[in-house]
């Protein structure tokens, strides 16, 4: 009987300890709000045209995928890629998520929504407006803050029509030898 009691004791302790554990708190709503707040602050940082402030929303190992450019990975490369855009006197950007979703694990999330951006048209040197959509993947940091780890945007403008290839030049037929 004693041996049986000794065998059942660990099983009973396991059942008791499992029953006493509480589920982790549900932070979904707070995480969604924190990410929305981060995006609002990010738009405000872009308005300052300060590359340090604007790039501070990216994690150290983030990657940014810009149209017609290579991928920029790590904080320094992202900041350097932003500088010409922020130096543009006509540059303005706004964006606001229409969708925010946080994983059940509470450590990853994404936002997507529309953006509007004004830049200088290189051909006319006049302001040029653009509209499109973006997708950002967020990761919760050790301090509880959220940082962007993957970021991209796409214009709604149609692709420029490809220029047709030039027609090959017609070669003149050479006169047969001996005839002029």
Structure description:
The chain is α+β, with helices and mostly antiparallel strands. The protein has a single domain (26-155), classed as Roll (Nuclear Transport Factor 2, Chain: A). The chain is built from 4 helices and 7 strands; from the N terminus they run H-H-H-E-E-H-E-E-E-E-E. It has helices at 2-20, 28-48, 51-55, 75-87; strands spanning 58-65, 71-73, 92-95, 99-102, 108-120, 127-140, 146-155. Strands 1, 2, 3, 4, 5, 6 and 7 form a 7-stranded mixed sheet that branches. The radius of gyration is 29 Å and the shape is elongated. The protein starts with a helix and ends in a 25-residue tail after the last strand.
Short account of what is shown:
The chain is an alpha+beta fold and 180 residues long. 32% of the residues lie in helices and 31% in strands. The protein has helices spanning 2-20, 28-48, 51-55, 75-87; strands at 58-65, 71-73, 92-95, 99-102, 108-120, 127-140, 146-155.
Query: Runs with pLDDT <50, length 5+?
Result: none
- Our count of domains comes out at 1
Helix percentage: 25-40%
Q: What structural class do you assign from the helix and strand content?
A: alpha+beta
Classified by CATH, the class is Alpha Beta
CATH topology: Nuclear Transport Factor 2, Chain: A
Measure the end-to-end span: 124 Å
Radius of gyration: 29 Å
What is the 3D shape? elongated
Query: Helical element count?
Result: 4
What does the largest sheet look like?
7 strands, mixed
Mean pLDDT, to the nearest integer, reads 87
Helix and strand pattern: HHHEEHEEEEE
- Give the number of DSSP strands: 7
Tell me what portion of residues adopts beta-strand conformation: 25-35%
CATH architecture: Roll
